[in-house]
Design a protein that fits this description.
By secondary structure, the protein is α/β, with parallel strands linked by helices. It contains six helices and five strands, in the order H-E-H-E-H-E-H-E-H-E-H.
């Protein structure tokens, strides 16, 4: 017979909410490589112009999957409400992020000199997710639209 966890009380919820910083970022922007920073900063620029706090981090779904999993699993608790994930080539980061959170994940396929067919590899990797692991996708290198989509999600 398995033990059941006691229901969370209003007091426990209030304590958890009190621990969230008032100025905590609402959007997490993650990318697979430092070389993606300038492109992904365009999402941050849109958010900043709208007065929405965000954070940016570099983490690779292939080189450091534990970091990606931990970041995404704790995102809601830290106050995030949307994750924007940019990656190129196999572009696994958006899907891995979505597998580890129930927050909306916006995937930004990124091109590079190693991209196949002008970035088609990344586009297909971001859009072709298995059932139950949704990722919203924007156009190739279009982090700006990811920022706009994040704003719409936050305002809905």
């Amino acid at each position: 017979m398995s033990e059941q966890a006691e229901p969370t009380t209003e007091t426990e919820v209030a304590v958890q909410l009190a621990e969230i910083e008032i100025d905590a970022p609402r959007v997490g922007i993650i990318m697979g490589s430092k070389s993606d920073w300038d492109t992904m900063q365009k999402a941050g620029d849109v958010l900043e112009a709208a007065g929405v706090r965000y954070e940016m981090r570099v983490m690779s779904a292939h080189r450091d999957p534990e970091t990606v999993a931990e970041y995404c699993q704790n995102a809601r608790m830290r106050g995030l409400r949307v994750i924007i994930a940019g990656a190129g080539l196999s572009a696994a980061l958006p899907g891995v992020a979505a597998a580890h959170t129930d927050l909306p994940v916006i995937g930004v396929p990124l091109s590079s000199r190693l991209s196949a067919m002008g970035g088609l590899d990344a586009i297909l990797s971001v859009l072709q997710m298995p059932p139950g692991v949704p990722v919203a996708g924007v156009g190739l290198d279009n982090a700006k639209n990811a920022g706009h989509l994040a704003l719409r999600i936050l305002r809905s």
